[in-house]
Amino acid sequence: KMPVNLPVPSQTDYAAIDARSGNIPYIYPKTEKGVELDLHPGSELHERIKQAVIRRAQDSYNIMKRKHADWNLVDQTLTAYIPLDEKEKALKARDPRKPVSIVVPYTYATMETLLTYLVTAFLDLPMFRYEGVTSDDTVGAIMLEKVIELQTIKNKVGLALHTQFRDGLAYGFGVACPIWGEQWGFKTERQPDGTKLRTRKRLFEGNRLENIDPYLYLPDITVPIHKVQEGEFVGYIDRTNYMSLLEMEAQNPNDFFNVRYLKGISGTSSWFGTEQSARDKRQNISTRTLDIHSSSNPVDVVWMYMKIVPSDVDWQLGDSEIPEKWLFGIAADQFVIFAKPLGLDHDMFPVAIFAPDFDGYSVCPISRLELIYGMQNVLDFLFSSHVTNIRKAINDMLIVDPFLINMEDLKDPEPGKLIRMRRAAWGRGVKDAVAQLQVNDITRTHVSQDAPHVIDLMQRTSGAVDSLMGIMRSSGERRSATEARGSRSSALSRIAKTAKICSMMSMYDLAYMFASHTQQLMSQPIYVSTMGRYQQELMEEYGQEKGMKVDPSQIDINYDTVIHDGTVEIGERAESWATLFQILASQPAVGAGFDMVRVFKHLARMLGAKNVNEFIQKGGGVNIQAMQTQEVLNQAKQGKLTPIGGQGGIEGD
After folding, report:
1. Residue 277 neighbours by CB under 8 Å, 6+ apart
2. Is residue 104 pLDDT above 80, yes or no?
3. What is the Cα–Cα distance from 255 to 83, expressed in whole angstroms?
């Protein structure tokens, strides 16, 4: 395919824009030495930044666009819809009840099975876990985990992770950006004199997770998909609107600028944001086909994280000669609305990639659903051809002598019809006037024999076998319980591999960046719940049962990120753990070497208990230890042991 050639960005008629909107006054960002940057639209620096961003976006788009056609095919398999040809359109127009070609939703079922495992593995609270490096950091790490857990709940991080997992399975990679966000609103407070004062305040601050549509992702094509941090840039197109940008400019006047130049101009879409997805084509809906005179004011913004040397002659944005990470925003491919160093402590591009089937080298790997697309196509053909043959067979296919039969009577589709013979045929009988044409069902094995073989191949390729879908095999010889457990365990291991890749590639980076953002950017105390994990430790430290106040200084500690490896203990393994627990409890010599409470908690979680800590006795409960009878009697005589509920020692020798 030929690369996309874009208009030269400097050809924008800024003189006409200024004449229409006036020379809007802005205070632009300053360098470290306090020199204000000239980022007025049309200035030399403005055009230099714009062209640098657009050039990188174009290079990336020309490569990524080659995958759009393949992704469209996957989108169609996930909508269970095939565009009708002219013959089928005419058929549905005559009788909408008659079946036509369909997509058998087996690819969708496969994706749902894999998604269910990933959701089960990673979306239980807390999603991100931490532990202190030293004993002095232990409590601080617990509070950090509690703060981030609250952020994931309030900002619905689980939904963004679900989208990232889904994109990874459907398109080969899923992209998520951890962003520090603030929620502003109004709060009404009662004054000492009884009056109420309503003021605008920051209601909540914390990490949120934004998804990037793979169709709108602009990576550095010189590095593999999973090595995003080693590239020189990474970007994406954000589809927003004029009012949202105007609101961000009002809330962050030191960061955003030039937004008001967008008012009233035509062509606010990006050249890289043209509608490429087939997700909405079934409904004939496209957010990019909105008329410019509609009630909405959509705007595309190209966001680009870049490594640059500020003092370089190509940039002239500062005096530093060391590469820095900057973020630039170009609205409608015309106006620079954001240009600022990232300044994040972790010094990473705030982007996390999940590519479950990456090969270690490709910038755009083949997805799990792309691998089975050919088989899905065959499966659709088998079902659709069988439907077509049935439709042909159940219709009357007749051989008629029009000299003997009144054809108009024969065409009458209503039941109980009366077919009249022509006058010339009266009295001759009706035996040879009409004959049914014999129809052979050459597709009778398509559904009963061929389709199951194709489905079996799809399962072998994807790993989403019947046992993981909750389907019991109803044909063939009876399987033993051991065979069923072994088959299910092997299938879980295959999917666990995908989950482990997700843990290493995406979840670890997200957990690290969430913690770093919180330590660096959290500006006000927050109340968190002490319930759940580490409840006992927090109660012993602070003596509070339900909630506590966390100050930013309390989480300024050294921590390690603890990430679930993606293994899910489901089903039969709980029985083995229950047996193991009974052995440990009945054999003191063996059980003394294990923490029986933690073993029991693990067993309870495998059986479905979400928060075992809710059932722990306040104050720690009773400390139970296994001791020999004679040792118990000796310590009782010394007054070191007391019966439960009693006041004195144990009587007798």
Report:
1. 68, 71, 72, 75, 213, 215
2. yes
3. 47
